[in-house]
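Continuing the batch. This is chain 6 of the set; chains 1 through 5 are on the previous pages. Same settings as before, nothing changed between runs. Recording input and output for traceability.
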Amino acid sequence: MSWAEIESVFGNCMDMCQKANRIPYFYITGGDPILHSRFWDLMELFKNNNITFTILGNPFHLTDEVCHRLKDCGCERYQLSIDGLRETHDAMRKQGSFDTTLEKIKVLRDAGIRCAIMTTVSGTNAHEIPSIIDLVVEHKADVFAFARYCPTSLEKSTHLTPEQYKKLLEICWQKFEQYKDSKTNFNLKDHLWTLFLYEKGLFRIPEGLNQNMIYEGCNCANCHMTILPKGDVYACRRLESNVGNVFAEKLFDIFTGDRMNYFRDYDKFEKCSKCELKRFCRGCPAVAYGYTRNFYAADPQCWKQIS
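Output for chain 6:
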């Protein structure tokens, strides 16, 4: 985007939040957003409007000076990726990426920025997740979370069966319990954690709730939108979900419009619509879409039996 386009998008976002009576929060990502020619102008725009934000980037340009400058501009959190142990991660990213990422956790924290470590889980790296948890705790990352890989077909090398995924959650839960007094917060990002905790008796459906209200679970078309460089607006950044264009329409109109409502038609969910956890889970429709090209299809890693 040009600077004029960035300012236009920012104004559209602020208009949306004013109309919806919501506090704006931005996640800035790339590639590496620091490399954008007007990146620091955008940071100053946030600072001048007292807006906090998160950056999803990579570690290669994070110096002490850069991190302190980010903090001064209102950066609350910086998310880095660790997608396996050294050999696995560097094969996916680039040589040296693994060690650089671990090194920059401290650089971010010393600047007062919370460091979140995110892992994308698939059949390629699932067996390494427990060791990654050990590593992020050892390096005192503030947050650890993982989400599932969204394939574009039934890729055998990356596929996890429902049974395999449930077993992984059990192993991770034991790790989270082991480290519950550590400085690392474990964000249960994947909504199948709700099913996992429900079956353990650790999540109970509250009584007296509105039966037609969505309370938790997948946030697609619920509390966020993704804006791409050419202005296209997606309901979810993890799947093809174009609902409008920020340069041609008001974000508030996009969010409340019919194209976004397609992603809120919960009674069309082939499996979730029949489940008592519909208002709190719904798995990951983006993963379902990746396998089937059908947003309403059953989550391919959900192990719950629905008659």
